[in-house]
Amino acid sequence: MTDTPQRTRPLRVLAAMSGGVDSAVAAARAAEAGHDVTGVHLALSANPQSFRTGARGCCTIEDSRDARRAADVIGIPFYVWDLADRFREDVVEDFVAEYEAGRTPNPCLRCNEKIKFAALLDKALALGFDAVCTGHYAQVVLAQDGTRELHRASDMAKDQSYVLGVLDERQLAHAMFPLGDTVTTKDEIRAEAERRGLAVAKKPDSHDICFIADGDTQGFLARRLGKAEGDIVDESGTKLGTHEGAYGFTIGQRKGLRIGTPAADGKPRYVLDISPVDNTVTVGPAAALDVTALTAVKPRWCGTAPTAPATYTAQLRAHGGETEVTAAPVDGELRVTFTEPVRGVAPGQAIVLYDGTRVVGSATIASTTRAPAAAV
Known about the structure:
The protein is built from seven helices and 17 strands. The protein has helices at residues 21-32, 61-74, 84-100, 107-126, 169-172, 186-195, 217-225, and strands at 12-16, 36-43, 78-82, 131-133, 138-142, 148-152, 175-176, 230-233, 239-243, 270-275, 280-284, 291-301, 310-315, 322-330, 333-342, 350-355, 358-370. A six-stranded antiparallel barrel has the order 12-15-14-13-16-17. A hairpin with a 2-residue loop joins β16 and β17. α1 (21-32) packs parallel to α2 (61-74), α1 crosses α6 (186-195) and α3 (84-100) packs antiparallel against α4 (107-126). It is an enzyme of class 2 (transferase).
C-alpha cells in the first residue's frame, strides 16, 4: 500500500519545485489529490548564473522562473527560499573535500540528506506543513506496524531510491513522492505535463552536477584545489607518467590516463588506487579491481537498524544494478561481504542496502578489500 504521510485528511504540503517536469507534475498531482499545496524553489547559489542552465536543474534563475510559471498554472502559492549558504557548505564544499581526500562522493545524495530532507523539511515543519513533496521516483509504504518504509519506484527504469537511502524514519513520515507508484514512461510524464498546461513539458533532462556549469568536473576541482603534479605508477611502483592532481581520477577510471607506455599484455589499464598523501595514482589491469568486501561508515537506516548479519542486495551507484551481499553493523560501521566480486567500488560512494524493494539503509564506503589474486 503506497502511502503519503497520512490519508485521513488533506495535508499541508510544501512542494519542492526544481523547475523541471518531474517536480511540476508531482506538485500538480498533490494538489489534484486535494492537499493544500504550496510550491517552493530553492535558491542554491549566491550566483545563479554560474550554475548549469537549460536542463532539469535546480539552481538557476531560469529554473526559478520555470518553477514559478508551473505553480501559477497549477494554481498554488509559490515562494523562493534562499538556502545557498547551506548548499555551499553541505554539498559543494563536501564534494570538493571528498575529492581532495581521494574519495568519490555523490552530491545529489548529499543534497537530499542535508538540504531537501533536513534544512527544507525542518523549515517546513516549523511553518506548520505536514509533508515535503518532490518529483523523485520512489515510494513511501505504510507497514503493518504503522511505520513507514522507503521502497523502489514501481517503474524500476526510473527508480531513484538510491539517492534517497539517507532518509530516516522521521523524514519518511513527512515525505511525499507522487510519481513513485505509477508505471509511466518519461514521455507519458511529459504528455501529462502538456495536458496540464505546464510549459516545462519539453524541458530536457540533465544528469550533470548542477553546480558545475560547464560539466567539467576536473576543471572545477582544479580551480578550487589548484594543480598539483604527481606520479602515475603501476602496481610495482614503476612510474608510467604524471598527472596534474590526483583529485581528477576515480577508482575504475580507464579513459584520460594519458599513459604513453602500453601495458606488457597490451590490455587497458584502470585506476586502482588514489593516494592523496603522496599525490600518487596507481593503475593496473581490470582484474585488480575485483572487490570482495568493504567497510562503510555513517550508516543511516530507513527504519529500525539491523542488529545481526543478514543477506541483502546492494546498489553501489545511482544508475547501477544490484548485487547480493551479507552485511552487518559492527561498532557503528557497516561490514559488507559480496557473494561475487564486484568492480568500480570507490571510497566515498554510497552503498544502499535493499530487502526486496524495501530500502534498508545506506552508508558511505570507507575502504575495500580486493580479491587476493588482485591485491594492490
